[in-house]
Amino acid sequence: MKAIRRFTVRPVLPEPLRPLHDLARNLRWSWHTETRELFRAADPEGWRPADADPVRLLGSLSAGRLTELAGDAEYLGRLAAASADLAQYLDGPRWYQEQRAAGAELPSGIAYFSPEFGVTAALPQYSGGLGILAGDHLKAASDLGVPLIGVGLLYRHGYFRQTLSREGWQQEHYPVLDPNELPLDLVREADGTPARVVLALPGGRSLYACIWLARVGRVPLLLLDSDVEENAPGERDVTDRLYGGGSDHRLLQEMLLGIGGVRAVRTWCRLTGTPEPEVFHTNEGHAGFLGLERIRELIPTGLDFEAALEVVRAGTVFTTHTPVPAGIDRFDRALVARHFGAEGELPGVPVEKILPLGTETYPGGEPELFNMAVMGLRLAQRANGVSTLHGAVSREMFSGLWPGFDPAEVPITSVTNGVHAPTWVAPEVFRLGAGQVGEGRAHQVLAGGPVADEASAQTGTPRRWDAVTGIGDQEIWDLRRDLRGQLVTEVRRRLYASWRRRGAGTAELGWIDGVLDPDILTIGFARRVPSYKRLTLMLRDRDRLRELLLHPTHPIQIVVAGKAHPADDGGKRLVQELVRFADDPRVRHRIVFLPDYGMGMAQKLYPGCDVWLNNPLRPLEACGTSGMKAALNGCLNLSVRDGWWDEWFDPDFGWEIPTADGSAVDEDRRDELESNALYALIEDRVAPRFYDRGAGGLPGRWIEMVRSTLVNLGPKVLAGRMVREYVERLYAPAAQARRALEPQSARDLAAWKAKVRAAWRGVSVDHVETVAGDASGGSAELGATLALRVRIALGGLEPDDVEVQVVAGRVDPGDTIADAQTFPLKPAGGQDLEDRWLYEGPLTPDRTGPYGYTVRVLPAHRLLATSAELGLVALPTEATGEGGGVLMR
Predict the structure, then answer these.
(1) Domain named DUF3417: which ranges (predicted)?
(2) Closest CA to 386 of 287, 317, 456, 314
(3) What CA–CA distance (Å, rounded) separates 558 from 565?
């Protein structure tokens, strides 16, 4: 019979075991080896690392086993040590506190919003790289002591679970998640009632949500859940699943995340006494409405919309993760207007002020759509991409928001992603390193704190990482084979389970015992399956791939995993194509597809592979952190120069796959060229190096590459390094900018911007001349100084409102300035009879060859983050016929 009601019965732990409760409900266990081992010891048979969940484990322990553990002195000693270690971790000063004590002006709190968080497989609230990155961000912030509050949604079905049909077609399953069975606690008011946030919906409806708390080390993660009794059925389903539903459903999710998320943060701070965040960080555009809620909060304090907008912008950081416009959420403007109109949310914030924030006011934009990334950029004074290359791609993609500026000057910087080493480094790798530097220091190294001394600072590599050079070749090779063997065991187990779900009988599956070999070069490929990641590029020439798999002396084996979005039939066809190839009896012992890729699988896959393959269409991979996780385990990368690999590639770390992205070839031809390059690399360079055995049967050059990857690449890819960059380059400046905007300063800045925008049509560069220096013949000597005189019309503005610059550098045949440098010009006199201002200054060319300059006028104010912030620039008019430049020989 089916139960008519469901509830969770929690275990009652004996008094000596009570600390297990706190250890289980703080997700630090997911990256703290000693705590995980403590839970494993409680039930060695029930604890599987890939599916580890201490909350479930404690709920499954029998009363007899609990009594036994409560009387085990050795176990209680380990429990006391783990509990004391957690207390010290939560309360002791860390890097951030040390920086503040040394006088650094850092924010008192940061709120970090993301639509998904991949903290642990026990809390399945992620789909792919964006969520894993967000989880690693929280964990690294915790390790460094950064006062972060995470904000997301609790999806009752999470992301889908993937299985395969007998024909290899992806099938989706949505398990129901009960928050009471997850490592979560309900946030309650002082009287014990559940805390609620509420949003107003059109038609007099309301959307309620409760707040669940996940403890991620020192960082609270607040997850909003609409499945509450106050809601009607439609509203209860708002947080049903990640990335599901139509436009209206997605808009409600993003309103709840952004607007409801701010209200949840306010509730948390009120209930706990936590300092209010000074900085709000939105991880992609999904949470962009948080800026509107903060504007709504400020308007009753006496600020108008424009002044409140300035305050909000100053304290907001926006991170874009997509290199393609198709990856951005866009909504019909009418839909947005309905939800923020008279009967909707944000009373006091006029909808006619909201809609322009998301309007695509650039060539090729669609003015009837509301673009969440565009709003994110307009509501944030600081923005970044997630690798150096992605920063450049983002500046190009969004350059229409800053007309008149070269893409290089678009105010979007980059902070290259990192990965949380304690989560992703295999215990065996950690123990090998700890044997060189000690366990405590090894933990510090993986946490990604700053380099230890001046010599280390100059190389960027802490000396403690150099200790890996002292590990012998045999130890490294034995470790790599052990990890490969563990992967083989895991693959066979998962493959057997997958085939059983596909309908195969036990008698059909004896061949699985021979799948993979712990002594064969193992290549891994695992990620989401959009078309640009090219899951099936390896299948381009199937005969050639079979030859590589079955090579008599240099064979390879490949482990593949990945999920296509449920609505992406094209991606599902790619999965099926790969599965059907891997099902071929001729090669199925050398290539496998594992369904249901997630964190549990990944933590075995990265360490067990020798080579990590990544072959996206360049430059469509924003960062691609899976290769970083592999590298931290001594896995070498074989990748297109995209994302992080573009900036940190080195022949000692792996191989670059040549690309045809600069060639005038169609997509099919490009795939052919790049797949051939991939096959050639594996056949001629990768496999021979792996099998090139020297003294003692060891591949000395391969081992040296593993060692170099660990020593030199390892410190760069850490999430600790990433979070420190966010703190120093984005969070701290944002907090300082926010503090500078007291109410009157905000009003003054808003009024100044309005004045500048209104006057800008009258700003022009009217006359440019060289008054000294020999450039009359169209050339000048290297080192010669040219004195420039420029007359500027300011349209009623004052000289203090603008900055006049010379922009100079080498020019191409089209007279475009490359590698530009800027030099200020200074006022040299008052207004003339034609209401023009005189500016003068020197220009000293510092390079030979074709050289040119131009002059421009930019708005200038002490509270602007960059001179491009307003997107306004005045350049010489073509009618003057002057100021084009000089040629230098």
Answers:
(1) 13-123
(2) 317
(3) 23
CB 636 within 8 A of CB 709: yes
Task: Give the pLDDT of residue 452.
Answer: 46
Written as six digits, the tokens of 854 are 């131009």
Q: Average pLDDT over the chain, rounded to whole?
A: 91
**In this predicted model, which residue has the larger pLDDT, 440 or 223?**
223
Whether 328 and 345 have beta carbons less than 8 Å apart is answered as no
- Is the pLDDT higher at 818 or at 505? 505
Q: Which helix (H) or strand (E) holds 792?
A: strand 786-794
Per-residue model confidence as pLDDT tens digits over 568-595 = 999 999 999 999 999 999 999 999 999 9
Q: Measure the CA–CA gap between 748 and 307, rounded to whole angstroms.
A: 8
DSSP state of 713: I
Q: Burial, 887: exposed, middle or buried (Cβ in 10 Å; 0-12, 13-18, 19+)? A: middle
pLDDT tens across 745-789, in order?
Answer: 999 999 999 999 999 999 999 989 887 655 555 667 777 788 889
CB atoms within 10 A of CB 52: 20
**8 A C-beta contact, residue 614 and residue 524:** no
pLDDT recorded at residue 708: 95
Locate the DSSP E strands across 494-634. 521-526, 556-561, 591-594, 611-614
What is the residue-wise DSSP string for 436-476? HH-HHHHHHHHHT---SSHHHHHHT--HHHHGGGGS-HHHH
CB 381 within 8 A of CB 736: no
Q: What is the longest distance spanned by two Cα atoms in the chain?
A: 98
Rg (CA), the chain: 30
CA-based end-to-end distance of the chain: 91
Q: What's the rounded Cα separation, in Å, for the pair 7 and 270?
A: 30
Q: What number is the average pLDDT over the span 522-532?
A: 93
Q: Tokens for 838, please give them.
A: 């005189």
Q: Are strands 161-164 and 170-173 parallel, antiparallel or unpaired?
A: antiparallel
Note the pTM of the prediction, 2 decimals.
0.94
User: With b meaning 16 or more CB within 10 Å and e meaning fewer, what string describes 55-90?
Assistant: bebbeebeeeebeebbebeebeebbeebbeebeebe
Give burial (CB, 10 Å; 0-12/13-18/19+) of 492.
middle
pLDDT of residue 459: 42
Please tell me what DSSP assigns to residue 374. Answer: H
Q: Is 665 helix (H, G, I), strand (E, B) or coil?
A: coil
